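new request in #modeling-help
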Amino acid sequence: MNNGKKTEYAYKVAEHVFTLGFAPELELDSGAMLDNYAPFAYAGEYPALFTVSVVKSPAPAFEEETRQDEEGQQILCGHTQGNDAVFEFRLQNRTCGTLVCNGDYTRGTIHLTEFAPKFTINNSMMVLYALATSRYRTALFHSAVVRHEGYGYMFLGKSGTGKSTHARLWLKHIGNTELLNDDNPVVRVFDNEIRVFGSPWSGKTPCYRNEDCPLGAIVLLSQAPYNKITRLRGIEAYAALVPSISGKRWDRKIADGLHETENALAMKVPTWYLECLPDEDAARTCHSAIRVCKG
Amino acid sequence: MKLKSGFVLRDVCGEQVIMGEGIGALDFGRLLCLNETAVFLWKKAESAGDFSVDMLAEALCEEYDVSAEQAKTDVAAIVDEWKKVGVVE
């Protein structure tokens, strides 16, 4: 740091350290902007896996490669002439800000606008976190996750399927259950176990818990006029997981890293398909099928 | 013809699977399982770049104990499947 006025913070999420620095000209209340990161503040040893600077200067021009459009939010992905990766975030087609990062995703710059700075920072951090950790058997999921008797249970599904609703049914009807994260938990494959971690990102629910536990099961949800649960194995389990994991699969190094993680999960974590109603019986049907019995 | 770019052959839980990962293949939205013969042909087609049914049938005959006629029928069926799902152009 050559500028004494720049404010820099360090965080540790799922045991990966990163830093976030604010340029002095921003005049943002970085405390309020970063309240969801506070439980993840880290005062230990560096080096960080990646570092991010937040600035006010305009984003560089870039060539678009592809774009994602979901629930009124767009991400335009591309690269600059110098081959830096670029992600422009839009809400209802209005640009909020842009993340620019180097080829191995170890350094990023977030260019803010006046519009939705917190949204931009969180989305940029999620993108960079997912990419920078992809080669360390780590996956950032789109999922709600509950902890029940020491194990994490993850609920996956397309937007609007009722992941959060199903998690709430567990909280209400299954004893000893708490919410670990409502939207973006992190999963890590270690040599001897697989763990799920809370994160600073949790969708609309402020549930930013710096806690983790062994992953007990993964459940893909689908709405139906009945409750029925089926075990998925091998390639079916793999196919159920992949759409819920963030990545940039057209970058071969990222795709290779994610594939290794996804394959390990499909082979080692019991994975289920739950066709369900939003009712108490759905939670009970699910719980009795998937709960880990400690022997 | 040739294999479209962006499709990758991977080992998924012990099975050989084609998936769409590149720009332009991201909307493939499915996993295509290949048997042993199809894997052999995919790898041949990949290294050849531009390929034909005859070329792959010939390679199949060199590798496996199969008649030229049978090889051509088998290759044509597999390549038809690839055309149908849209992984060749």
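bot summary: Residues 68-85 of chain B form the longest helix (18 residues).
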